[in-house]
Specification:
Strand order of the largest sheet: 3-4-5-2-1-6
Strand content: 15-25%
Number of helices: 8
Oligomer: single chain
Order of helices and strands: HHHHEHEHEEEHEH
Helix content: 40-55%
Length: about 200
């Protein structure tokens, strides 16, 4: 099957961006649903837009339709993330995803990567603190399952419950995780870096 044209990839990115903002989808899910919506469900993954392309469309969509509300919602989510990062400081938490990259809205989940010497230590800490959580997994970069915990956390500023995902990674993975994307922007940041973004709202990760 021939590769998708650039124009179709752009259309997929634009459609996915609307799903990310309007329905709170993650990028992968949004791209797959965009393929189906455009009648190209069997086209395969080779010509899909990159996450960076979808993110560009998300930023454009937010600027056009959500400029009055999104910055306030983003700041509230970042403050909630920082609260949890301070609670889990012994696990070297790093914020990633839309809240870190600056595209989160009230529909977005929060994603923290934890770098632990013992994969079960986070669960033990949550149990000891009486924090309810669910256990799941997600595929790693090599397709291997990676433990992921989810917590329902109340966000007073937004007046709603936000899903917090904790991805449990090996401590040795931290160095590689700090590599920037192709444009020199970081994929994640620690509590110090997040405080800097909160102090300087227009700063880029």
């Amino acid at each position: 099957m021939p590769a998708m044209t650039a124009t179709l990839a752009e259309e997929i990115a634009a459609t996915a961006a609307r799903l990310v903002v309007d329905e709170g989808m993650e990028y992968g899910q949004a791209k797959r649903k965009a393929l189906r919506a455009l009648g190209r469900a069997g086209a395969g993954r080779g010509g899909l837009p990159s996450n960076e392309q979808v993110e560009d469309e998300v930023r454009d969509y937010l600027a056009l339709f959500c400029a009055d509300t999104q910055p306030t919602e983003l700041a509230a989510l970042r403050r909630l993330a920082l609260l949890w990062m301070d609670r889990l400081t012994e696990f070297r938490p790093h914020l990633t995803g839309a809240a870190w990259r600056g595209t989160a809205t009230r529909l977005s989940a929060l994603h923290l990567d934890l770098y632990c010497d013992d994969a079960k230590s986070t669960e033990i800490a949550l149990i000891n603190r009486g924090i309810a959580y669910d256990v799941g997994s997600r595929p790693g970069v090599r397709g291997e399952p990676i433990d992921m915990l989810s917590i329902a956390s109340r966000c007073g500023e937004l007046g709603q419950t936000v899903t917090l995902f904790l991805t449990i990674l090996d401590h040795d993975d931290l160095r590689g995780a700090l590599k920037p994307d192709a444009r020199g922007r970081s994929w994640r940041g620690d509590a110090t870096a997040l405080r800097r973004l909160l102090d300087e709202p227009k700063a880029q990760p």
